[in-house]
C-alpha cells in the first residue's frame, strides 16, 4: 500500500501485528538499549507510584514482578516502560494511568496493558479478539426524534492513528509535519457534503483563533495528563482542524491521537450522522493506513480508545427521568450506555439535558456499537414518553438552544476521559471513557 507521498508503508514502519513485533532480545540484552538515566528515572517513578495514594488501574496492576519483567524492554521507536507510566505517576488521580507511546507497546508491554484492558473493557480477555471492521447498513437507522423532539443533537466520533508513525509521545518534529501533510492530502479527496477546508494551528491568526475558540472548535494543549504523557511536543506544529461547509463533519489532526474524526448534527437523525461518518472513513481508508491489531482492533494513544475507537452520543432532554436518575441509570445500563451531565463528566444537568453515549468499544463491531446506542436511546425515549408529566415542547427553548451551541463540538474531547478528573473541566474537555471507570466504580 502506498502512502500519499508515494513510499510504501513498509518503507517507514512494518505493519503492526502481534506476530510481527520483534523484541530487543532478553532482558539482559535489552539493558544495552535502556540507558542508565532511563533506568534510574524508571526506578524512582515506580517507587513514587507505590508510595502515592491513588486508585488508578496502573497502580492496581503494576506489581513489582511485572515492573521487573518490563523495565528493560524497548520498542522500535525507543519507548520504555517509563513512557507508558509517567503520566499516571505524575497524576495520581488518574483513573487509568497509562498511555501507549506506539502501537508496538500494546505487545511489548502487554503484561501491564492486558490486565488494564480486561478491567476497563468489561472482561475483554487476553485471548479474545476484536471482530473485523463492519459498518453495516446506515439506512437501517432512523430519526430518534420521530415520536417527539427529545434529542437535541447526535454525534459519532472515532480516533484513528496512522500505521507509519509512533503515537504522540514518540513523534519527532518531522513526524508531526509529515503526518499532517499526509492527512491533509487525504482530506482533499473528500467531496459532497464532506468537502471543506483544513486550517493549520501554527498559521492561525489571532482573530481566527478567537472565532474557533468561541465556536468550541479549537483544541488546546492545557491538559496536564496529556502533557505528562508527552503529547504536546513541538506544539502547535503538525496540528490542525478540518471542517466541512456545514460544520457537521470535523477532523482534528494530532490532538491526542493522530486523527479525531467527528460527524454530528442538530436533532436525532442517527441515519444521517452515521452515514456521513461511514462515508468519510471509507474515503480516508482509501488513502491512509490506520494502525490496527488483530486482537485489539484499532490502536490509539490511550487503551480506553482501542477497538472501534467509537463514541456515539446524544444530548437528550428528559424532564421525567431527569427527576429519577436511578431509573435513568438503570435503563442506560441495560444497553451499556453511560449517562453524564449536560457538559460531560462532572458537570451539572441543565434543563434536564443529559449526554448519553456507548460505553463499549472493544469486542463488538462498529455497526453493533451504533445499534446498541440507538436501541438504548429508543428505550429511554419510550419510557420518558409513557411516563412524562409535561409536554417536552414546553421546555425552556432558549436554554436548550444555548446548551446545543455550548456543547455541539465537545464530543471531540472525550478521549481524555479516564486519565482525567474534574479539574480538567476548566479546559472544556469532555471527559468520557477514561473518567467512566473511576465514576462507575466510585459512584473515568
TrEMBL record:
Extent of Polar residues compositional bias: 394-404
Q: Which InterPro entries match?
A: ATP-guanido_PTrfase, ATP-guanido_PTrfase_AS, ATP-guanido_PTrfase_cat, ATP-guanido_PTrfase_N, ATP-guanido_PTrfase_N_sf, Gln_synth/guanido_kin_cat_dom
Give the GO biological process terms. Answer: phosphocreatine biosynthetic process
Biased composition regions of type Basic and acidic residues, renumbered to the chain: 1-16, 405-444
Keywords, A to Z, come to: ATP-binding, Kinase, Nucleotide-binding, Transferase
Phosphagen kinase N-terminal domain ranges (all copies): 38-122
Instruction: Give the top-rank taxon of the lineage listed in the UniProt record for this protein.
Output: Eukaryota
Renumbered residue ranges of the record's region Disordered: 1-35, 387-444
Sequence positions that bind ATP: 153-157, 216, 260, 311-315, 340-345
Domain Phosphagen kinase C-terminal residues, every copy: 150-387
GO MF annotations in UniProt: arginine kinase activity; ATP binding; creatine kinase activity
- Please give the Gene3D superfamilies that the UniProt record associates with this protein: ATP:guanido phosphotransferase, N-terminal domain, Glutamine synthetase/guanido kinase, catalytic domain
Question: What EC designation does it have?
Answer: 2.7.3.3
GO cellular component annotations, sorted alphabetically?
extracellular space
Similarity comment text for this entry? Belongs to the ATP:guanido phosphotransferase family.
Name this polypeptide is given: arginine kinase
Q: What is the protein's species of origin? A: Armadillidium nasatum
